[in-house]
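From the shared-data thread, chain only:
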Amino acid sequence: MTEASEHITPLSSTHVDNGILGRVPSEHVGRPQCSLPDAALVPDNEVRVEVDAGWLGRVRLTFRKYRYTRPKGKFSAVAWSCRHAEPVEPDAHGAAEEN
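Structure, as C-alpha cells:
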C-alpha cells in the first residue's frame, strides 16, 4: 500500500492564453484595476488599459467581468479580473497618437 501507483493519469491540460500576464509585476496590474469603474455599472464585459510596466515597457492589460456568489447564493457581485497582457509595440503606440 505504500508503493505509488504506476498508472497515474495526468490531469487534462487546459491551455489558457494569458499572454505575458505572468511576467507583469502585480503592482502594475493592481493599480489600474483599482482605477476601473464599478463593474456592475459598465455595460461592456471587457476593458483594455495600457500601462507602463517597468522593465517590460508598455503593456496592454485586458480586464474581464466576472460574477461571484457567496456560499448558498445569498450574495452575488460583479468584479474585474485581469485575464490577458500583451506588449504594446512602440511604433504602433506612437502612430496611434499621431493620427
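Strands lie at 46-52, 58-69, 76-87.
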